[in-house]
């Protein structure tokens, strides 16, 4: 299947933008004036902190600027639409397209860490170490456990221009081609992935205000 993709000159694409930013409470405030609201865990385990991705960005109160990365990665739509009359090969094409979109942003993230952002210029990791995420920083993706609001894709699209890599959004914030991924890149040495999980009504209503949406509209986008 991979050989088939190469023969047809199908491509994977990625786009990244570095933006000066600071944490402002549970939001990330970008130097361009845009604000990315985020959600915080509300678990009852006293021995563990309730995390929010903004915890890994330098606070606005420090007076010093940090950075975050914004990214989107995708594959040519014709790649995942191959073999429409052969269910097995069609499913295989979709699966491989998904993996290639992830591989494209994995490679891009490596370039960001070592060169573009350059916060880890001495990084030398084997493929297995990369698979095990031994590098500094994280890249939480929209719709995944630590970034469960699919409507954030509209903010990222505004800042990145998804159309540059052939990605369009549905009314629900889903990406087309399906073999696409978007999200944030954070460099903090202590940054780690986590699951937001169930949140209380208090945070839900506060988040709706921060997102500028009514509660019913917001509920359509959350993957909690």
Largest sheet, spatial ordering of strands: 3-2-1-4-7
Number of strands: 7
Q: What is the name of the CATH architecture? A: Roll
- Largest sheet, strands/sense/barrel: 5 strands, antiparallel
What share of residues is helical? Answer: 25-40%
- CATH first level: Alpha Beta
**CATH-wise, what's the superfamily?**
Vitamin B12-dependent methionine synthase, activation domain
Overall tally of domains? 1
Radius of gyration: 18 Å
Distance between the termini: 35 Å
Strand content: 15-25%
Discrete helix count: 7
* Helix/strand/pairing category: alpha+beta
What string gives the helices and strands in order?
HEEEEHHHHEEEHH
- Overall average residue pLDDT: 95
Poorly predicted parts: none
CATH topology: Cobalamin-dependent Methionine Synthase, domain 1
- The backbone outline, from C-alpha atoms, is globular
Describe the overall structure.
The protein is α+β, with helices and mostly antiparallel strands. The protein has helices spanning 2-7, 77-80, 87-116, 127-131, 152-160, 201-211, 215-219; strands at 12-24, 27-30, 35-37, 66-75, 168-169, 175-176, 180-185. The strands form 2 sheets. The protein has a 5-stranded antiparallel beta sheet, sandwiched between helices. A two-stranded antiparallel sheet has the order 5-6. Strand 1 and strand 2 form a beta hairpin. It starts with a helix and ends in a 5-residue tail after the last helix.
């Amino acid at each position: 299947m991979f050989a088939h993709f190469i023969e047809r000159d199908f491509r994977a694409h990625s786009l990244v933008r570095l933006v000066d930013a600071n944490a402002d409470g549970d939001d990330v405030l970008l130097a361009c004036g845009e604000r990315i609201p985020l959600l915080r865990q509300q678990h009852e385990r006293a021995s563990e902190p309730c995390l929010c991705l903004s915890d890994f960005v330098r606070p606005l109160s420090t007076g010093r600027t940090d950075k975050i990365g914004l990214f989107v990665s995708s594959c040519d739509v014709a790649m995942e639409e191959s073999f429409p009359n052969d269910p097995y090969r069609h499913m295989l094409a979709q699966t491989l397209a998904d993996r290639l979109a992830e591989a494209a942003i994995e490679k891009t993230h490596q370039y960001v860490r070592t060169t573009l952002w350059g916060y880890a210029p001495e990084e030398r990791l084997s493929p297995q170490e990369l698979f095990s995420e031994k590098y500094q920083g994280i890249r939480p993706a929209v719709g995944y456990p630590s970034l469960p609001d699919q409507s954030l894709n509209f903010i990222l699209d505004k800042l990145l221009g998804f159309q540059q890599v052939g990605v369009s959004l549905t009314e629900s914030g889903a990406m087309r081609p399906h073999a696409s991924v978007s999200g944030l890149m954070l460099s903090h040495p202590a940054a780690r992935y986590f699951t937001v999980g169930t949140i209380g009504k208090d945070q839900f209503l506060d988040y709706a205000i921060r997102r500028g949406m009514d509660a019913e509209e917001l509920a359509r986008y959350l993957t909690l």
